[in-house]
Amino acid sequence: MRREHSPGSARIRAAVLSLLVIGIVAWCAPAALAAGKGEPGRLSATRVELQDTQADLELFRALDLDVDGLFDGWARVYLLDEEAETLRSLGYEVSVLWQEPVQKPVASAEPLPWTGEGFSSIPASYHTYASLTSELQAIAAANPSLVRLVSIGQSVQGRELWMVKITDNPDVEEDEPEVSFIAAMHGDEVVGKELLVGLTNYLVDGYGTDMRVTDLVDDYEIWLMPSMNPDGTELGQRYNAGGFDLNRSFPDWFEDAVNTPDGRPLETGLMMAWTAAQSITLSANMHGGALLAQYPWDNNPTHSSVFSPTADPAQDAFYSVSLTYASNNPPMYNGSFPNGVTNGAEWYAISGGMQDWNYAWYGNFQLTLELSNSKWPSANQLPTFWNENLESMLAFLERGGEGLRGLVTDAATGSPVAAEIYLDADPFPVYTDPDVGDYHRVVLPGTYSMRVEAEGYMPQTIPVSISSGAAARYDVQMGPVVTDLQPISVRIIDGMFFKYHLTPGDTVDLAVTLKNEGGTATSVSGRLIPTGCDGEILRADATYPDIPNQGSASSRAPSYEIHVDPSVPLGRKVGFAVGWSADQGAAVSEPFFLDVGAPVCQDSAATDVPKAILDNQLVTSELPIPDNFTVETIEVTVDISHTYIGDLSVKLYSPAGTPVTLHNRTDGGANDIVGTYGVDLQPADSLSIFAGEQAQGTWTLAINDYGNGDTGTLNSWSLEICAPPPAGLPEMRLREVRSEQSGVRLHWWPYPALDSYKVYRATDPSSPAQFVDVTGEDNDDTDTSFLDTTPLPLAYYLITGVGPQGEGP
Ligand SMILES: [Zn+2]
After folding, report:
1. Distance (Å, rounded) from C-alpha 524 to C-alpha 718?
2. How far is the CA of 65 from the centre of ligand 1 (A)?
3. Catalytic residues
């Protein structure tokens, strides 16, 4: 199931998106490979009689069983034969409801052609993949001004994952709420698929004649996906063709909060990539097997099946849009759930569901709809389902245009801004569409405090007042952050060797000093952001004192902590940026780089000693260093005996003539000078003055005696000079990928000592030969971004740097 991804390479999947989102806890750690349910056909949907619901659900979770519904005294659970045996041996009564693949109630005959009359019925047969494809293609071809048929990629068995986009001006990003329905991610839950084919026809055919439909198509961007798991439907099974439950395979905010498609089922990864490139306001995920509308959270920190609301005002909005769907669907509204609505985890908790993922990472308010008690009812019931759901679907989509909306733009240029919109104390924002700058948020009438934050801009807090009906509009112009915090030095604390570079396997604290190149900065905090994949961030967050303009401050202890992977090659440059936030705004600093290497040190001792130190005289001793290398650190070991060292000044001169005073007429007659400057002796000047000089040549120790009556001897002295590790290159990493009007924009970190960058693209990354040089498609190869104007549903990019030594790595 896992797609090829070679560790340590700069190969970056376009699906790895929004690397700067909150919730990065590991440094490129791949998600654990999801467990599939084995070979199709060995599974049964079963009815398990419950004894103590909460305890039973906990046990099922411990056994990693796939619970699919919770009813009065029983649960529907998908079980392998051996899992069913385990439950029986534990005393549970387990009966088989059906075996996978399901027996389809009606043979998949070709559907009758859509009549386009009345919309009171839909064809009394199910679409196959082939008939779905041909029908969607025909609709798109017949309605070029309203419809785009997009494949977001291919399923495990090579079927297209069709997404229908319906809007006026379908090739133009407009200031419109984006709304969507996704159906049949469980392949055997197929009523939603037929509803969405019906809705596609309904919207297209009603455009221009039905005022409500016309308004929807004109004012919204509608995305309909009838079949997220076409392999499962063709096979007559819940899971995808690899045996994965797609609605248990998304990153989970509470258990697996790393937003990466690594290790996830193919269809899940494709959906993640597609979602990240859109700006969906409101959506629903259509299932079958019960009748209800449910809303986040589906999970909680303890994975308990208890009421798990989001924070207000999101919770009120979620309940309200759920009620909009359910109350327009009489069997749902009058079914076994109060008003046809439930909180997800209150019904039963799941991990890795799609709705929670959409809300947590993208501010996409997504519901999960259970549309039919039977997952695959007889096709002659489809017209009834259509009639029961049409008003619900229309009214639900319309809710995407209520609440709060606006444009966030740069005050100076008018350009759209990628911003986060917070309401009251709800910690989860919605996001602007960076192409246009528009944001849309479903929220009930009332007054709220809106906070708009964007990287590089001053945050703004604005009171907003929402009334019912069309969304209240609050446009926001953002001014730049004056404060500009940049890293100027880094101290490595508790490293295996040195303070200035890392060693493979090191676990160290990093104290990062930020300088304020702009306005005041108060309440400063920092988050360490890796620019490559070389280890783990053990402690990402640190606080700082207030930093005045032109002042600087180091991160407070215990500061940041990192672990460098033992496999990181010597010579690698490991990069980090600091994402800082202060009362005056937030931004990400330029990156800084630390070298990885073992220290290369040379010990040399003077041979022209001992030498007598006489009253009021200068004595010098020379130490030649034959090898040519750059000084990174230096330690000076001396053994000077003298009856009164307060008479003495001791200086070390580099081959270039730079003096550093080690001892300057301090102390008295009680001590000699025996020890190592830089270790147990504190030099009067800093030895770091020598850093960067060449080691080769003659180093001179000069001792001046400034007094009468006391003499001594320079017994011995030696130098330990260490070179920096060999110069290396950083691993390049994408900083952000986002869709723009004219394509997909890749944005990466700037790297030192590189003159330009090259971009390669492949659809199959299995060998280097698959990567085609597309650098010339962008007119500036020195900047750190690239616009791919012919993006593919799933593309792999390789970005390399070109420096004085040529191209690499
Ligand atoms: Zn389902």
Report:
1. 45
2. 15
3. 370
